[in-house]
Design a protein that fits this description.
6-stranded antiparallel beta sheet; about 0% helix; two-stranded antiparallel sheet; mainly beta; 10 strands; single chain; about 120 residues
Length: about 120
């Protein structure tokens, strides 16, 4: 069996994004969940779908009520852009040198990866 390669997604949970393609084009919302393997994100208030659910009376109180439930469906990460101050921006990465401290008190230099705005160069 082939080993699956870890896919990286530069959008994170809690980011505010704008939809740039699809039926909800132009809508803005906060990212609720990132599905890294599928390269999809779930955005608050975007791509809402209705699910018809049955009444399940299994286990007494644990049973679910039936009806129509409206929930957000995942959209592909390529269809959203990060919102920054006035508009949208692409995301880049920069390696910053930082000083870290060991448990015994000694320090050492290491690098930390930070997300940056491609438009302004500021750290996100």
């Amino acid at each position: 069996m082939a080993e699956s390669k870890k896919k990286s997604v530069s959008i994170k949970k809690g980011d505010t994004v704008k939809v740039i393609a699809g039926k909800d084009k132009g809508a803005e919302g906060r990212v609720i969940q990132v599905l890294r393997e599928e390269q999809r994100v779930i955005v608050e208030g975007v791509n809402r779908v209705k699910r018809h659910t049955k009444v399940v009376n299994q286990g007494g109180r644990a049973g679910s009520t039936g009806g129509i439930i409206t929930a957000e469906a995942p959209i592909h990460v390529s269809n959203v852009m990060l919102v920054e101050d006035d508009g949208v921006t692409r995301i880049g990465f920069r390696r910053d040198e930082v000083t870290k401290r060991r448990p015994d008190g000694s320090t050492y230099k290491a690098e930390r990866s930070v997300r940056i705005s491609r438009k302004t160069g500021k750290e996100i």
